[in-house]
Each structure stands twice: as C-alpha cells, then as structure tokens.
Amino acid sequence: MASSSRGQFTTRLGFILAAAGSAVGLGNIWGFPTNTAENGGGAFLLIYLAMVVLIAFPMLVAELTIGRYGQSNPIGTLKKIWNGKPVIAIILGVIAMIAASLILSFYSVLAGWLAGHAIAPVLELVSLDSAAKWLVTETLARNMFLTALFSLMTIYVVQRGVADGIEKWSTRLMPVLFILFFVMIAYIFTQDGAVKGLKMYLIPDFSHISPKLIIDAMGQAFFSLSLGVGTMMVYGSYLKKDANIPKTAGQVAAIDTGVALTAGLLILPAMTVAQHNGVQIFNDSGELLSSGALVFSVLPNMFETMGTAGLFLAAMFFVLMVIAALTSSISMLEVPVSCAQEELNSDRSIATWVIGGAIMLLSFVICANTGTLIDLVALVSTVYMQPLLGAAWAIVLGWVWHRNGVLKELQQGNPEIENGLFWKIWPWYVRFVCPIAIFAIFALPFV
After folding, report:
1. The pTM is what?
2. CB 371 within 8 A of CB 113
C-alpha cells in the first residue's frame, strides 16, 4: 500500500512523543525501579544503561529504518526487503504480532489493576468506601471489569487512526505524565527515609552481578524501548521521509531512559519512606518483596499513612501509571491492527475491535489464572521473544537488506550521513555485534 494512502504522524514532535509514549510504560515506571531494587541498586542501573547504549539504541535505529522504508506493517515491510522469500517474512511478521499481542494481554490486566487503584482514592474522598475497597480487592469479577475498562480505552484510541488517535492522545498524555512525575518526586523527597532509597538506587552493589542480572537488564532495555515486537517498525512506517532517523531514535531513547531513571528517583525513595513509616518492604528472609507487592501493597500502605494528602498522592501516582500503560498499549495493538488493515484489506475500525476483543478474551483467561499465567506470559514474551526478534531484525538489516538500500533510506533525512562516524560504525555494528551479543547473553547461564 502506498505511503500516500496510509496514516502519518503530522509533526516530528508528535512522532517523538508517540514513540516515547510507546517506550515509556510499566517497564520504566514499575519494572525498572523494582528490577533495580532487587538486583543491587546501582549495579543493575549501570548494566541497564550499558544495554541501552550498546544494544537497544542501535536496534531502535534499525527498526525505525526498516519500518520507514517499508511504509507498511511488519509483514508487508519484511516482504519488501526479503524479496523472493515471502514465507520467511510472513513467519517473522506473525511471530512479532503474537509477541505484541501476548504482551498486551498481560499488560491490560496489570494496567486494569492500576486503574482500580487510581479510581479508589477518589471514591474514598466522596465516602464511597465499599466501592473503593472492591476496586482494590482481587476477585475475578474485579479483574475482568478493570481489564475490560483498560482494553476499551486502548481500542478507542487505536481505532481512531494515527494522527487523530495515537498522535493526538500521545501529545496530550505524555506532558501530563511528566508533570505528575516531578510533582510526586518533589513531594517524596520531603519525607523522612527518602535519602536511604536514593542511596540504594545510586550506590552499586556489584556482588549482585550475575548472568541472570545481565539477561534481565537486556530484557528490560528491549521491553522499555518496545523493541522486537514490531511496534517501532510500525511507528517508523508512519514517519515522514525527511526525518533524521538516528537523531530521532536518540531523542526517543533519551526520553525513555530519562523516564526510567526518573522513575527510580520516585519508586525507590518511596519504598524506603514506606519502610520508615512502618510498612514492610522486605520479607522474613530479608529479600525485597515482589514487584507486584511493592506497587499494590507497599505504596498504597504508605499513602494511607499520610491521611487525606495520601489519597490525592495515591490517585496521582496510579493515574501516572495508567497513562504510561496506555501510551504503550496503543502501540502494541497497532501492530496486529496494521497487519490486518493492510494485508487483509480490513476496515481499520472493524480490525481494531475484532483484534482488540480477541486479546481482551485472552486477558480474561489470564485474569482467571493470575497466579501462574501473568509471570509466564511476561517471561516468554518480554525476556525471550523480544530480544530474539530484535536479533532477527538485526540480521534482516545487516544481512538481507542491501547496504546501499539502507544508506539510501537514511540519506532521505540526513543527506550527509555517509560521511559521518555513525555510518562508518552502525551498519557493521548491527550486522555483527548486536545479534552476537544477544545470543551470547542468552548463553551466559550455560557457560
């Protein structure tokens, strides 16, 4: 399908905020701080930053370049690059769609819980205590209601298209997210116990470094930047041809990493403030409580110790989490929707409701088995499928797509790129270093 008949981001800022919104999600605001707390504080932080710079950023440039060249969904784009081998292109595109759908299926459940915790303090303020309690007490009915609520929000935005849906809502929601962040951080640092959390965050404990930590850090970097599952490939396909892709990718990666680092400044001090207020954050064996317990038990308990002000802060915190989740979920749903729209000539609205509804049903299955399925689906899709698909895209760009074709695509937004240091290093780096590094990291536990 020609680019003229497809949606496009209308402004460069709109694309940056949408792509950053896709990248900025629960992986940053929930996953990164709790991974940091569980893995030696600053030690995990340093490894994570290394993974972002050495693997995630080069791969982000690769995905955006592949996507803009193809001007299509992942299947259509890969078929265009892999001329003569459409079966391989279709298989990889379908796997990316499955991975994005799996992530969205468990993501919607978690985001629904967050929505419940955002609404509950408001209900408490107007004395609807029983309704507030229902929203924060885990039951199958509550899980399914909140999952459906969040899923419908995602479907609503995606079915409206690129400019009127994804771009418009990303440019509205991302500034709100940043404002909420800084208000929350400023308040937390007025509380006793916050400095202890800051030290935990910034001072490395290198005894925690292990193959598992390195794999977790790589998975976190891929999950955080929405790599591997085709979201950035699809967003790249909506990017105008005059955009400087390496510069734009750098800005997206910088915003995403900045939000992750900022989230650490909020969550870890909040944990130690909670501990100072008598809330348990470690179990009997001295280990940090699970990330779920931290977000849904520790922080709400801390807010409760603050009286009425705590209700306002709780609502702000969980609204922040829901916004971050929504800007990511719309990018994940866009992957299978764009494939259905362009490969099957489906109406966008119908495709969004059918696919979004199917993923919602999968989320309901997870709701009924939260104890086992959430962790399993998250592990398979984010820790394994995302990096391995990322390696596949590196191979496609480095070995399948002709080098001159890559250069020609990049030159449309930066005519002088061939003479710079980036072009002298990046193609070879993606061709050799990125896939080898990804596979080597997976092999670490077996060495």
Report:
1. 0.85
2. no
